[in-house]
Amino acid sequence: MNNLAILLVYQATWFAAVIGAGHGQWWPGVLCAVLFALWRLARSPQRALESRLVLAALAIGLVLENLWTGSGLLTYAAPWPWAGSPAWILALWLAFALVIVPLLGYLHRRLWLAALLGAIGGPLAYLGAARGWQAVQFSEPVWHGLLALGVGWALAMPLLAALAARGLAPDQPGEPTR
């Protein structure tokens, strides 16, 4: 599967979810994530592994998002179906899980790098959603929310990368070459 196509569809899903939520609509991101998942899993040579990654990412996302919202650090626009973890943010966790094998193979055995990129990239994505489209609101002081996001993503990224590495044989696509 063309990695550029995967990246573009993932980014389109992110924008649909964030822009939709910023306009009070939860369903654009969910629809895009479901279509992305159907397309990706239909063509994936590691369908079972990626399905397990989706389930793991949804579980991790549900825990972290409820922790962040329950503590008052974050508030989401378009909070359907409940105020804790709205459908659109969980759709983003689902979509993210689908890029771990094809696009983030270099992280599968470099868990320290996965943690570092998670600690930086996770908060930046939320900050972009907040500043660009008002899909997320941070409580004051904002750095508390950013720190919590950094810690959460610094744990989530290496966990998901390790799950991917465990499911891939050394000669399968998505595995870094040695």
Automatic annotation (TrEMBL):
Alphabetical UniProt keywords? Membrane, Transmembrane, Transmembrane helix
Q: Which Pfam families match?
A: DUF2878 (PF11086)
From the record, give the transmembrane residue ranges: 25-42, 54-79, 85-104, 111-130, 142-165
Point out the coiled-coil segments of this chain: none
Q: What superkingdom heads the lineage?
A: Bacteria
Protein name per the record: DUF2878 domain-containing protein
Which organism encodes this protein? Answer: Stenotrophomonas koreensis
Q: What is the lineage of its organism?
A: Bacteria, Pseudomonadati, Pseudomonadota, Gammaproteobacteria, Lysobacterales
